[in-house]
Structure formats: C-alpha cells, structure tokens
Amino acid sequence: MREDFTTAWNACTEYIKSNINPQSFKTWFEPIKAVKLDGNVLTIQVPNKFFYEWLEENYIDLLKNGLKIALGENGRLEYQFMMENHREVGKMSKEKNDDNFQKGFSTDEIKNPFVIPGIKRVKFNPQLNKNYTFENYIEGDCNRLARSAGKAIADNPGGTAFNPLVIYGDVGLGKTHLAQAIGNEVLRKFEKKNILYVSTEKFTNQLIQSIKSNAVSDFVNFYQLIDVLIVDDIQFLAGKTKTQEIFFNIFNHLHQSGKQIILTSDRAPKDMESMEDRLISRFKWGLTADLQIPDYETRLAILEAKMNKEGIDLPGDVTEFISFNIKNNIRELEGVLIQLIAQASLNQRKIDLMLAKEVIQSFVNQLNKEITVENIKQLVAEHFQVPIEKLGGKTRKRSIVIARQLSMYLAKNLTNKSLKNIGNNFGGRDHSTVIYSCKAVQDLMDTDIIFKDTVAELEKKVQLSLS
Ligand SMILES: Nc1ncnc2c1ncn2[C@@H]1O[C@H](COP(=O)(O)OP(=O)(O)OP(=O)(O)O)[C@@H](O)[C@H]1O
C-alpha cells in the first residue's frame, strides 16, 4: 500500500495539475516530494528556499485548494528544503549562521512552519546591528537632511521619493549607523518586511561564489525577494563590471516593484569612478544626502550620549577637550572614550585633562603644540562665520572689524607674540593698531555682557585647542 503522504500529495497535485499549464506544473510541482504526513500536517520537500518563496508568491491558492481536497479543511502544509542539490552553494561561506544567502540555501532541513491558511513568509535574518537606532543617532546640522529622509523612509519604505537613498560622507561619520537605523526602524514597524543589510564586499563575494557554483539566478532571485535592501560602501563596486551588471538588474527589479533601496558610499554618485553611467544615473533617482563633519556642540552631544550608554561620567573639561580636538571622525571620538576608560581602570588612573591629552595624542598627530595667531584667527572666523582672509584685509564692515579686533585681543593675551608680530599677521598692521584694537575690545566687554561671554567662550575654545 502506498504511503499516506504520497496519496495525500497525489490528490493535491491532481487538482493543481488540472488548474495550471503543463510547463508550470513540470517546473514547480514535479520536483516536489512528499515526505511525511503527521495527522493533518503534510510535509513536502522542495529544492531550495527560493522555490518555496516562489510557490508561496504564485501558487498559494492552488496549494490551499489542493490541500483541502486531499486533507479536508484543516489540512496544513510544512516545508523542508532538500540538502543534496545545494552542497555547492552551501560552501559559499565558511562562517556559520552568518549569512542569509548561505542559510537559505544550505541549511540542512530548515523547517518552515508553513501553515495554510494564514501563511507566514519566511523571514531572513536582516543582518542588522540592533545598537544602531535613530534614538542614539544624535541629530545635528551635519546630518539633518539624511536623518530626516531616513525617518520618512522608515515610516513608508519604498513609498517616498527617496528611493534610492544614497548616504555619503567621509570615514566614521555615521553612514552605516544611519542606514542600519532605518533598517531597524522598518523592522520594528513592519514586522513582515524582509530587510537585508549587506556590505558591498559580501555582496561581491556571494556573487563570485554563486558564479562558481552555477547559481547566479538563485542569487539574483534571493535579492529580488527583499523589501528593504541596504548596501554599504557601494564605492567598492568600482571596476567590478560583472557585479555592477548583476546589481543593476537587482536594483531595477526592486525599484520597479516599489521596494526600498538604501546605499552608502564614501563619495557622491557623481564622483564615483569606474562605475557604469547607467548605475550612477539610477543612484541619482532618489535622494543623495551627505553627512558632514559634526560641529563642536554635536560632537559633545554624541560623546555625552556614548557616556550615558556606558554608564560613565567624565569631568566637563575632559569631555569638552575631547570634543574639541577630535573633529573629523566619530569613531575616533568613541575610541578616545574607550581608551580613557581602559587606561583609568587598567592603570588605576584618574580621568582628568592630563590623561585625556595623553590618550588623544595617540589618536591625533597634529594636535596644536602651542597657540598660534593662525589658530585664533581660524576659531574667531569660524565663530563669526566670516572668511578668515578678511581678518587680514581692509574691510570696515562691522562684523569683520569686531572679529579682527577680537582676534588681535586674544592673540595679545594668549600668545607671547609681540605687538609687531601680531600686527603682521593681520595684513601688516602696525603695533598701534593692535593696541587700539585691544582697547576697543576691552571697552565693548565692559558695556556688553553678551560680547563678554563670547570672548570668554572663545578664550576657552582657544585654550582647549592646546595639547
Ligand atoms: N550622529 C551620531 N550619533 C551617534 N553616534 C554616531 C553618530 N554618527 C556616527 N556615530 C557613531 O560613530 C561610529 C562610526 O559610525 P559608522 O560606522 O556608521 O561610520 P561610517 O560613516 O559608516 O564609517 P566608514 O566610512 O568607516 O564605513 C559608530 O559607532 C556610530 O555609532
């Protein structure tokens, strides 16, 4: 007597066969084997995960009806993936459980609790780092546009004009954090969506492996099932013609299907070399948002947020000193904090300005050794938002005159330069002009309390820039 599961599956496929064309039946149902019937749960074996996804997307009603005929109203279906056919693909990565692509195709006996009715889609592991969220992504002028576009996407993935969202910026400015925060937020809000974060390097390696094992279409199909695809560091696609071509196809498919694409890069699409024009033009379809170097206040806020997370408290002058001196890379800002904590606990040292200076020395080579007139001019020009060269010029515009006089005042009080030398640094002015400027600043400080605060703030900034 034939086994029950074969009988049940035959009854099911009998119905399916009479309702689809022979070619589709041959392609999608002949390779399936029934392997078990447990009560009203029929287990079938399919060649791979993609196969399963395809059945779910395209033939679910047929399967439901067929199963009803074979097992009655309460019939349920469970899936197993075949192992034998996928050894090749299974070799794709040595890391275990690291990679969806590998997992989807190679895991021995993934059982999908595929229940009819009320079918659930199999979820990939999105490969997201849970620590990267919007809550701990501090907002500043440097990232406002990218951050708010990211939030809009997280509310409506694939449904905004920001598709793709290309986030670009220098090393360590938070591209990965922001891209993953979007992924985590989508995951939280839309539990059913398939999200995947992948680095360009991993994407390329997967592709190479799939070419070797003759499974490129499986690779493409896998990526085409994703609802929110996040690809990090796409500048590494440069010069990789085949990877660009496949990525182009995946991009088009996802975009046309209203799926969200988020890309990060260390440069703007227009500056990407050795990249096909058709890809670059697609990168420009949505929004390209850059991350700039955060200003002092934002760096301080980021540092304080990290301290909160670590549960530590540093003296104000230390946090100010770090934030002032580590300007270009937030990863370095965190690095200094970690070093400080490590030094303090390993060497039993108190965290103070002295230790902070030592630690920072190992991160930044170009700490200022002494206050220079040039430093002062730079800080004052930044503060008043005037071009630095105007400080040495002839302009009599009030904001520039004040910035110029204040720079001279600070140079006289904070450096040991002579009046003549200071004057030379301001377009060859003579020593009496420097004296006059210092007096003008002093008078203004005596009458304008806000100006006095500004001078104190700038003095502090100049001193913080000292190592
Ligand atoms: N606005 C921010 N608020 C809080 N933390 C931030 C912010 N921006 C960056 N960081 C932190 O700085 C570190 C570096 O960020 P991230 O790895 O995202 O940078 P990246 O731009 O992707 O760097 P790379 O170019 O090296 O890939 C991370 O730990 C991240 O959490």
From TrEMBL:
<dbReference type="GO" id="GO:0008289">
    <property type="term" value="F:lipid binding"/>
</dbReference>
<protein>
    <recommendedName>
        <fullName>Chromosomal replication initiator protein DnaA</fullName>
    </recommendedName>
</protein>
<feature type="domain" description="Chromosomal replication initiator DnaA C-terminal">
    <location>
        <begin position="372"/>
        <end position="441"/>
    </location>
</feature>
<keyword id="KW-0963">Cytoplasm</keyword>
<comment type="function">
    <text>Plays an essential role in the initiation and regulation of chromosomal replication. ATP-DnaA binds to the origin of replication (oriC) to initiate formation of the DNA replication initiation complex once per cell cycle. Binds the DnaA box (a 9 base pair repeat at the origin) and separates the double-stranded (ds)DNA. Forms a right-handed helical filament on oriC DNA; dsDNA binds to the exterior of the filament while single-stranded (ss)DNA is stabiized in the filament's interior.</text>
</comment>
<comment type="subunit">
    <text>Oligomerizes as a right-handed, spiral filament on DNA at oriC.</text>
</comment>
<keyword id="KW-0547">Nucleotide-binding</keyword>
<dbReference type="GO" id="GO:0005524">
    <property type="term" value="F:ATP binding"/>
</dbReference>
<keyword id="KW-0446">Lipid-binding</keyword>
<feature type="binding site">
    <location>
        <position position="176"/>
    </location>
    <ligand>
        <name>ATP</name>
    </ligand>
</feature>
<keyword id="KW-0235">DNA replication</keyword>
<dbReference type="GO" id="GO:0006270">
    <property type="term" value="P:DNA replication initiation"/>
</dbReference>
<dbReference type="InterPro" id="IPR020591">
    <property type="entry name" value="Chromosome_initiator_DnaA-like"/>
</dbReference>
<dbReference type="Pfam" id="PF08299">
    <property type="entry name" value="Bac_DnaA_C"/>
</dbReference>
<dbReference type="InterPro" id="IPR010921">
    <property type="entry name" value="Trp_repressor/repl_initiator"/>
</dbReference>
<dbReference type="InterPro" id="IPR013317">
    <property type="entry name" value="DnaA_dom"/>
</dbReference>
<feature type="binding site">
    <location>
        <position position="174"/>
    </location>
    <ligand>
        <name>ATP</name>
    </ligand>
</feature>
<dbReference type="InterPro" id="IPR024633">
    <property type="entry name" value="DnaA_N_dom"/>
</dbReference>
<feature type="binding site">
    <location>
        <position position="175"/>
    </location>
    <ligand>
        <name>ATP</name>
    </ligand>
</feature>
<feature type="region of interest" description="Domain I, interacts with DnaA modulators">
    <location>
        <begin position="1"/>
        <end position="95"/>
    </location>
</feature>
<feature type="domain" description="AAA+ ATPase">
    <location>
        <begin position="161"/>
        <end position="297"/>
    </location>
</feature>
<dbReference type="InterPro" id="IPR038454">
    <property type="entry name" value="DnaA_N_sf"/>
</dbReference>
<keyword id="KW-0067">ATP-binding</keyword>
<dbReference type="InterPro" id="IPR001957">
    <property type="entry name" value="Chromosome_initiator_DnaA"/>
</dbReference>
<dbReference type="InterPro" id="IPR027417">
    <property type="entry name" value="P-loop_NTPase"/>
</dbReference>
<keyword id="KW-0238">DNA-binding</keyword>
<dbReference type="GO" id="GO:0005737">
    <property type="term" value="C:cytoplasm"/>
</dbReference>
<dbReference type="InterPro" id="IPR013159">
    <property type="entry name" value="DnaA_C"/>
</dbReference>
<dbReference type="InterPro" id="IPR003593">
    <property type="entry name" value="AAA+_ATPase"/>
</dbReference>
<dbReference type="InterPro" id="IPR018312">
    <property type="entry name" value="Chromosome_initiator_DnaA_CS"/>
</dbReference>
<dbReference type="Pfam" id="PF00308">
    <property type="entry name" value="Bac_DnaA"/>
</dbReference>
<dbReference type="GO" id="GO:0005886">
    <property type="term" value="C:plasma membrane"/>
</dbReference>
<feature type="region of interest" description="Domain IV, binds dsDNA">
    <location>
        <begin position="345"/>
        <end position="467"/>
    </location>
</feature>
<feature type="binding site">
    <location>
        <position position="172"/>
    </location>
    <ligand>
        <name>ATP</name>
    </ligand>
</feature>
<dbReference type="GO" id="GO:0006275">
    <property type="term" value="P:regulation of DNA replication"/>
</dbReference>
<comment type="similarity">
    <text>Belongs to the DnaA family.</text>
</comment>
<dbReference type="GO" id="GO:0003688">
    <property type="term" value="F:DNA replication origin binding"/>
</dbReference>
<dbReference type="Pfam" id="PF11638">
    <property type="entry name" value="DnaA_N"/>
</dbReference>
